[in-house]
Amino acid sequence: MVGISRAGEGLAPKPSEPWAKPYPSSLKAWQDSRFGMFIHWGPCVVGDTRISWSRGEAMPIEQYDNLYKKLEAPKFDPNAWVATAKAAGMKYIVFTAKHHDGFSMWDTKQSDYNVMHSPLARDVVKELSEACRREGMPLGIYYSVCDWHQPDFPRTSPAGTVKREKSDLPAYRRYMGAQLTELIKNYGPLQTIWFDVPQEFNQQMGWENVKLVRELQPNILVNNRAGGGAGDFNTPEQKVGGFDMENPWETCMTVSRGWSWRSRDETKPLKLCLRSLIQAAGGNGNFLFNVSPRPDGALESEQVERLKQMGAWMQANGESIYGTRGGPYMAARHIVSTRKANTIYLHVLDWPEDTLILPALPAKVLSSRVLTGGHVSLDQTAEGLKIRIDKGDRKEIDTIIAVEIDKPAMEMAAIPVKSFNVPITEGKTGKASSVRNVLGNVTRYSAAAVLDGRETTRWRPEEGVNTGWIEVDLGSEQAFEKAAIVVSTRTGKRFTLEYKKGDAWQTFHEGNSIDPGFSVQFAPITARYVRLNILESDNEPSISEFQLFRASERK
What we know:
Helix 3 crosses helix 4, helix 3 runs parallel beside helix 8 (301-317) and helix 5 (169-187) packs parallel to helix 6. By secondary structure, the chain is of the alpha/beta class. The protein is 18% helix and 26% strand. Mean pLDDT is 94; it is low at 1-8. It starts with 23 loop residues before the first helix and ends in a 6-residue tail after the last strand.
């Protein structure tokens, strides 16, 4: 897991010194790439436990700190990792050299708590950097600002919530500087330093971190978690960022549920994976997609297969992602757009019944084609664009229409688009029978997560609980005739959909398992309170979205 406690959601104001600003050429090359691989790997995989965050929580500190003594990884092959990234269409890699647990995955001279003292005894960062160099794959290094193992750092596990009786932050900063110097000097040049969880580091200290790495390598990029929001780009986590043409950003997201390998983890559906990438590009952001090698060092076969599927899609449609910028049409639920040169790529994610109507475009359309196959009818008027495509040519994941115009597409200002097919549940309040508590955080998996319009967040009940309900308050009585439940994998064995009539709950639909893509239509119901009730399940439910639709908003 990258981290619950993050440094600033936005970018801090930059100092005036030249080192505070990234090289424009470095930033452009990184943005042009659009799609990268994140790799979380460390001794935690041997214990089948969450990286860093389980230290002192799910697993005793002493036990966690000795997991490295079992890290053998006989199938560790950095060449295979890089080959998988290339097959997926990924253009750069970021690797966790040191996570919050303080274990170094390279031959550091600053501490014996490193991979050379494990049974693996191989410099993972060195071998990966060499494999990347051979294949022309830019490499970035993830380095946790906090370190719950290093005795000079003021905080320790669980989750940095415990203050040490004795600590020496200046000494820790020297330690951190020495390690960063090793990484950049010995394994560079690097594309990025990807900081995380800067506990105890304010904005001034964050900019000092940026200055340190920029003096070592002037063209390096730094994310916004160095401390107090200092850095070059924002990093929304497990969600796609909003449309932003001013501030560079990169969504980091997992291909499975967790950041590091777990034996009971599940790979996300292709539709969710690809749409997250597409929506990131449409919002003018990058997409850093995390994989998690197993204890033996090999990537999980299901994750590799998912990335191959994404690579096949990118091979066919990559021109609409690589080298583009977001817009001019701003992201909506049913559409995003990308652009480069004199071409706008319309990514249609959901279709109305017949005609897609977009606001007026301040340029003349010269031609249009369907990148994903088929024929398009596009009519341009002063009021807007009217677009029709036969239903047989509409793709479930993304129908891409390339529109050539008579001027550079980047000259246009952003154009807002009103979403259609918006659930009446979106943005409403809700409550649940129980909520997973993660180190005191009871909002991460709350009922609000299924009402926020994002498929990357989710509700989960208390750990070990396999049943439960989610209730939504529509604010007033409203009529609806369709429900959809978004899950990444099959959930439950028996469930009901219910509405409140007086003081009693009335069932209006009953089903067995909830599969990805589930929706159901029924005779119109008018109610204020509605709930999903999972009555039987073999595992803990995980629900991403609970949606109700009016008849007029039904596709």
